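Support request from a user on the community tier.

User writes: "When I paste my structure tokens into the form, the page sometimes reloads and wipes my input. The last time it worked, I copied everything first. Here is what I submitted, just in case something in the input itself triggers the reload:"
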């Protein structure tokens, strides 16, 4: 059973109208019978909760620097408010969804991330941020076999049982690789990957990704998405698409394997896959 993995940025889930549109699209895709795994973020809601708690937000190139206090907020928002709201909204449309985190049966087994090396060469310690290194997919596969839709909050766990903050794009790439997904679709609030003129790049190979990042064309949030795409392709996922999740027709088309105008297909540069 080869599923489709769909990742949604938190900006698509924070407003009721956007959440309703996303949930409707997910429900429509699920009703086609395609096995489906959803991974979500929730960055803006985390930011708001941090501000309310008087905790400074710190990020580097789209990655959240996470101390203990920040991690508590991240877990509360992602695994609590956002995940539960998403699952409940799917239930109202008759979709049998189950909320998970990477801690469930260690499906998001991770290790502490190494210091992040920025585009300009600086090393930045990320704190309680994880990097998926494996994990048991048994619970996810069991849910898929039972025609449930796993909805995964991007929280990981290490071998010592410590929770870790995982970038949602990275987590989606991990699930796509581990489940041998037919396709990874990353849905955000931009029309795919944009060039320096603001136009959508329809097809982007891994060699061009390096040019976008080193040249500064890719925004901080897009850098994390592009790295996750690279990792998914390196792990054997054949089809990776970054799509505008605000465009529901484009989202459904990308999920079916088409390439709408507001999307970018990411491919491996010929000769680079081992």
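"...and here is what came back when it finally went through:"
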């Amino acid at each position: 059973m080869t599923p489709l993995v769909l990742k949604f940025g938190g900006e698509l889930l924070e407003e009721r109208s956007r959440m309703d549109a996303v949930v409707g699209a997910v429900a429509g895709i699920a009703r086609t019978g395609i096995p489906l795994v959803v991974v979500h973020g929730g960055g803006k809601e985390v930011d708001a909760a941090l501000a309310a708690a008087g905790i400074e937000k710190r990020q580097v190139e789209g990655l959240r620097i996470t101390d203990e206090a920040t991690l508590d907020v991240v877990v509360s928002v992602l695994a609590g408010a956002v995940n539960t709201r998403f699952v409940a909204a799917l239930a109202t449309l008759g979709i049998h969804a189950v909320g998970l985190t990477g801690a469930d049966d260690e499906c998001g087994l991770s290790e502490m991330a190494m210091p992040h090396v920025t585009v300009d060469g600086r090393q930045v310690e990320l704190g309680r941020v994880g990097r998926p290194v494996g994990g048991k997919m048994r619970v996810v596969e069991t849910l898929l076999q039972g025609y449930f839709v796993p909805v995964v909050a991007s929280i990981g766990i290490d071998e010592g049982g410590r929770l870790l903050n995982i970038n949602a794009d990275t987590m989606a790439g991990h699930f796509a690789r581990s489940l041998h997904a037919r396709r990874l679709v990353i849905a955000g609030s931009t029309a795919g990957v944009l060039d320096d003129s603001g136009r959508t790049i329809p097809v982007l190979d891994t060699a061009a990704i390096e040019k976008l990042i080193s040249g500064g064309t890719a925004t901080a949030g897009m850098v994390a998405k592009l790295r996750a795409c690279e990792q998914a392709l390196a792990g054997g996922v054949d089809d990776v698409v970054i799509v505008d999740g605000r465009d529901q027709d484009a989202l459904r088309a990308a999920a079916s394997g088409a390439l709408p105008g507001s999307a970018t297909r990411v491919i491996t540069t010929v000769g680079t896959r081992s």
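Agent notes: The reload is a front-end session timeout and is unrelated to the input. The mean pLDDT is 90. Residues 60 and 220 are 8 Å apart (CA to CA). Escalated to web team.
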